[in-house]
Automatic annotation (TrEMBL):
<dbReference type="GO" id="GO:0051607">
    <property type="term" value="P:defense response to virus"/>
</dbReference>
<dbReference type="InterPro" id="IPR011604">
    <property type="entry name" value="PDDEXK-like_dom_sf"/>
</dbReference>
<dbReference type="InterPro" id="IPR022765">
    <property type="entry name" value="Dna2/Cas4_DUF83"/>
</dbReference>
<keyword id="KW-0408">Iron</keyword>
<feature type="domain" description="DUF83">
    <location>
        <begin position="28"/>
        <end position="203"/>
    </location>
</feature>
<dbReference type="GO" id="GO:0051536">
    <property type="term" value="F:iron-sulfur cluster binding"/>
</dbReference>
<dbReference type="Pfam" id="PF01930">
    <property type="entry name" value="Cas_Cas4"/>
</dbReference>
<keyword id="KW-0479">Metal-binding</keyword>
<dbReference type="GO" id="GO:0046872">
    <property type="term" value="F:metal ion binding"/>
</dbReference>
<keyword id="KW-0411">Iron-sulfur</keyword>
<keyword id="KW-0540">Nuclease</keyword>
<comment type="function">
    <text>CRISPR (clustered regularly interspaced short palindromic repeat) is an adaptive immune system that provides protection against mobile genetic elements (viruses, transposable elements and conjugative plasmids). CRISPR clusters contain sequences complementary to antecedent mobile elements and target invading nucleic acids. CRISPR clusters are transcribed and processed into CRISPR RNA (crRNA).</text>
</comment>
<keyword id="KW-0051">Antiviral defense</keyword>
<dbReference type="InterPro" id="IPR051827">
    <property type="entry name" value="Cas4_exonuclease"/>
</dbReference>
<dbReference type="GO" id="GO:0004527">
    <property type="term" value="F:exonuclease activity"/>
</dbReference>
<keyword id="KW-0378">Hydrolase</keyword>
<comment type="similarity">
    <text>Belongs to the CRISPR-associated exonuclease Cas4 family.</text>
</comment>
């Protein structure tokens, strides 16, 4: 079933992307897009970045994870900062850790996150994209992965269901289209803006008000 979803003949999202030479996008762009398409375009098309205490915390967590040596414990090999890509899907990036079960041969991507589990599947989509990369690179089906959250110090198992795979493929196609367009979508102010490191650059309330004013002017102006 996983193979069907990634087959361009069976999946129109992939067929379109493959034919039109869209750019390869980073795995982090998928998570940014799932959070907010404007944030994704600001970061990946306009190279906007603002470090705040949340992004700094996330960076140090990844530095800590990445600095560890590979090791083997109880029949499992732990490889850190593994570079992965899926050329056919147009994605590439780094997996924080890949757990390789030396008995069964199975691989499991693990992503470390600063916060806690979220109601929306942003982190799951990024993790699933990592699994799709590992699948293309190794030819084996990756059944599950895990997210580890610093705030709750808890590990969450993620099963790569057909639904999550389809959602991930859709986001990959949308991100590639967005970044190829060079366009930055207008802001849509919402609850997520409070947690967004780019809120000062984005100015969502101001720009949204400006757009509404122009809309009304267009309706009633000369
Ligand atoms: S401030 Fe809000 S609209 Fe602007 S990029 Fe961040 S989440 Fe998106």
């Amino acid at each position: 079933m996983a193979g069907d979803l990634q087959n361009s003949a069976a999946n129109p999202l992939l067929a379109g992307a493959g034919e039109r030479d869209l750019p390869t996008v980073s795995l982090s762009a998928l998570q940014h897009y799932a959070f907010c398409p404007r944030q994704c375009a600001l970061i990946h098309n306009e190279q906007a970045w603002v470090e705040n205490y949340l992004t700094a915390q996330g960076r140090s967590l990844h530095e800590l994870v990445d600095s560890g040596e590979p090791e083997t414990r109880k029949g499992v090999r732990f490889e850190r900062s593994v570079h992965v890509s899926a050329q056919r899907l147009g994605i590439s990036g780094i997996v924080d850790m890949v757990e390789h079960d030396l008995v069964s041969g199975s691989l499991k991507p693990v992503e470390y996150k600063r916060g806690k589990p979220k109601p929306e599947p942003f982190d799951e989509i990024q993790l699933c994209a990592q699994a799709l990369c590992l699948e293309e690179m190794t030819g084996q089906t990756i059944a599950e992965g895990a997210l580890w959250y610093m705030q709750t110090r808890h590990r969450v198992l993620v099963v790569f269901s057909d639904g999550l795979r389809a959602q991930t493929l859709a986001v990959i196609a949308q991100v590639r289209e967005l970044l190829a367009s060079g366009q930055t979508p207008p802001p849509v102010y919402g609850k997520r803006c409070k947690a967004c490191s780019l809120v000062e650059i984005c100015q969502p309330k101001l720009l949204e008000k400006d757009r509404s004013a122009r809309y009304v002017e267009g309706l009633f102006g000369e």
